[in-house]
Design goal:
The complex is a heterodimer of chains A (257) and B (368).
Chain A: H1 2-23, E1 31-41, E2 44-45, E3 52-53, E4 59-76, E5 81-83, E6 87-91, E7 96-103, H2 105-109, E8 113-121, H3 130-133, E9 151-152, E10 157-158, E11 161-168, E12 177-183, E13 190-201, E14 207-215, H4 216-219, H5 230-233, E15 235-238, H6 241-250, E16 254-256
Parallel strand pairs in A: 1-14, 12-15
Antiparallel strand pairs in A: 1-2, 1-7, 3-4, 4-5, 4-6, 4-8, 4-11, 8-13, 9-10, 11-12, 14-16
Chain B: H1 3-21, H2 57-67, H3 80-83, H4 130-139, H5 148-157, H6 165-173, H7 180-192, H8 200-205, H9 213-223, E1 257-258, H10 273-276, E2 285-286, H11 308-317, H12 340-351, H13 356-359
Antiparallel strand pairs in B: 1-2
Helix pairs in contact in B: 2-6, 2-7, 4-7, 9-12
The chains are: A alpha+beta (257), B mainly alpha (368).
Chain lengths: 257, 368
């Protein structure tokens, strides 16, 4: 009788051990999409700090470009969008920045072949709250440290994009007139959909990298009705008209290489 | 499998489960430091504590002794506290600090206030951790100018009266072997406790007091865009402080690097570019916190301004143009053009960031 009881106790202890051991097994890694983005000016590769000529003949020097990219999504062959619900901060130093989206096994189970890519520029409205950022750990892109320089305290919004630079108002002049785009607040959140030339297959434990091109000349709308004269935009923050024009242009400035 | 074999397997399982359940508590039974839990003030973000330097009561006590220990300088003449005076927000009221033998430094000593939330250190951000920052001044020829080997040997063997450093290191780290690493870790633990969060502004944020009308007006100016909207699109006739000294996390610094228009060129001190090599970083310096700014004179990386009035006047004038001046400086349009009463209000608000309980906290003063 004692032996039976001892065996039961040992059996239970063994079960607990198995539980602990099995709980230590890592889950399979998600499928990852990496968006590597390079800068260009009308198709020519550029870096932050380079001098380019805008459509009005100004010598223009982009000095700073950061933005939030969120909700990296893939469209499967059924037309269904699978959303990674990601948020990344892109800092172009000096010409390349990357964002990641993770797709868990479950989301890839039904269909893992995709024909389009989508992501948003900005911070989704449900987390576009300055009151949240003090509770986030510093490695979160929306934390006080992660979003350093990207918060608009007065209006309680993150800056979705920070594009700053200087230009010479006259040909050959001194590059010193500043231009500043700081679009922020929910109405300026934009989605970008890029159709893929070839379908991709993403499995769990795999990483697929896209190389994107961001054309800053398109971002100032050189060939659209929403073109911007950088010599007069000054500081276009929040939702002022030039900031709205800028985000509309910015959303059309991305292509898959 | 017979019942005996099954029982053996189950016993092995039980032993494994016990080992897992007991975790990693396999340390020295004869040493146990007292964990210290930082109290994060209201509206502050979490503080990053390095996993390899957890805070303990004993570590902080040792760090304070070492912060004020003159044996960390070549001729035993100065300690960290010599250039980081409590009454000056733990910075130096002199433009440049005197190192050993009276040698002068070339930048104003940075304030030590809420550094636990800083993401880089020194005016040029050349240290990425507080521990690395602490290593630098000891061997710097213009500062304490002594090798760490000498410092460690002194702490091991010199007579410090009632202070027994090997025992204090054992109490803090469980090891009497004094090293450079453990020395900087102890000082870092102490500095992480140096938290200022009880200024009038903090009390107002917590609903414990009111700002005066003038202070509140200054706060509004602080948060508003600068410039005349007719000249500067988006301007609100504000003081435009928040872009770099934002209140997110209540540190009044973005901890980033800016050229705020002090000089037309940067031969004397290139600043951040010496760390990154990126030409657009020429003339850029780290944004300091504005906490206790009224106590922190002189101002700027080179301590060129002696009063808040001079600082405000600099921004009001628009600064000096250069190739990398920050886009927010209004140098092309003549500055902020604040009226005298606006400047006074702004300064009144900056005084509301003074936290006398911080600079007078007996836990931070010289224990020797």
């Amino acid at each position: 009788m004692m032996k039976i009881k001892l065996n039961i106790i040992l059996f239970l202890l063994g079960g607990i051990a198995i539980f602990f051991i099995s709980s230590c097994n890592p889950e399979s890694e998600p499928g990852v999409v990496v968006l590597n983005t390079e800068l260009s000016w009308s198709g020519e590769a550029i870096s932050i700090g380079d001098t380019v000529i805008d459509y009005l003949g100004h010598d223009v020097r982009p000095d700073k470009l950061s933005c939030f990219v969120s909700n990296i999504s893939l469209r499967n062959l059924s037309g269904e969008w699978i959303n990674s619900e990601s948020i990344s901060r892109l800092d172009f130093i000096p010409n390349l920045a990357s964002a990641n989206g993770e797709f868990n096994k479950k989301s890839l189970r039904r269909c893992n072949e995709f024909n389009a890519l989508r992501f948003d520029v900005g911070v989704p409205s449900e987390v576009n709250l300055m009151s949240l950022n003090t509770s986030l750990p510093s490695d979160d892109p929306l934390s006080v440290a992660g979003a350093a320089g990207m918060t608009w305290d007065m209006m309680g919004s993150y800056f979705f994009v920070k594009f700053e630079g200087k230009l010479a108002e006259n040909e050959g002049g001194v590059i010193e007139t500043p231009f500043i785009f700081h679009p922020a607040s929910d109405p300026l959140y934009r989605s970008i959909t890029l159709e893929l030339d070839e379908n991709i297959v993403l499995n769990k434990d795999e990483t697929i990298e896209f190389m994107l091109d961001l054309d800053l000349n398109k971002a100032i709308g050189y060939s659209t009705a929403d073109s911007l004269d950088l010599s007069v935009v000054g500081h276009s923050m929040g939702g002022v008209p030039n900031a709205i024009k800028f985000v509309n242009n910015f959303a059309t400035s991305w292509t898959v290489k | 499998m017979n019942s005996k074999s099954a029982s053996r397997l189950l016993i092995i399982g039980a032993v494994i489960s016990t080992a897992i359940a007991s975790g990693c508590d396999c340390g020295n039974n004869t040493w146990k430091a007292t964990p210290y839990s930082i109290e994060i003030p209201a509206f502050f973000p979490p503080m990053d504590i390095p996993a390899d330097n957890p805070m303990t009561v004993e570590g902080i006590k040792l760090g304070r002794l070492l912060f004020w220990e003159t044996a960390l300088s070549l001729d035993h003449s100065i300690s960290c506290g010599s250039c980081h005076s409590p009454s000056s927000n733990f910075s130096d009221p002199n433009q440049f600090s005197s190192g050993v033998n009276g040698t002068l430094g070339d930048r104003n000593a940075s304030v030590i206030c809420n550094l636990g939330w800083s993401s880089s250190f020194f005016w040029d951000g050349r240290a990425m951790t507080l521990e690395d920052q602490i290593r630098d001044p000891v061997e710097h020829p213009l500062e304490m100018n002594v090798s760490w080997e000498v410092v460690v040997e002194r702490l091991k063997t010199d007579d410090f009266g009632e202070l027994d450093y090997p025992q204090l290191f054992f109490d803090a780290f469980g090891d009497e072997t004094i090293t450079e690493d453990l020395t900087v870790k102890a000082i870092a633990q102490f500095i992480r406790t140096m938290i200022s969060a009880d200024s009038k502004f903090d009390k107002w944020r917590r609903g414990e007091t009111d700002l005066t009308d003038q202070e509140y007006f200054g706060y509004q100016l602080f948060l508003k865009e600068g410039g005349d909207p007719e000249v500067n699109p988006g301007g609100e006739f504000g003081a435009d402080c928040f872009h770099c000294h934002g209140e997110a996390g209540l540190q009044f610094s973005d901890y980033l690097f800016h050229n705020n228009g002090l000089d037309p060129s940067f031969e004397d001190d290139p600043g951040r570019v010496n760390v990154t090599g990126f030409v657009l970083d020429s003339g850029l310096f780290k944004t300091p916190t504005l906490r206790n700014v009224a106590l922190s004179a002189p101002y700027m990386h080179d301590g060129r301004f002696t009063s808040l009035e001079e600082v405000i006047e600099h921004y009001n004038s628009g600064g000096v143009s250069s190739s990398t001046i920050d886009a927010f400086m209004k140098y092309t349009t003549g500055g902020l053009e604040l009226a005298p009463q606006q400047k006074e209000a702004l300064i009144a608000f900056l005084h509301a960031l003074t936290d006398t309980t911080f600079v007078q906290n007996p836990n931070f003063l010289n224990p020797h």
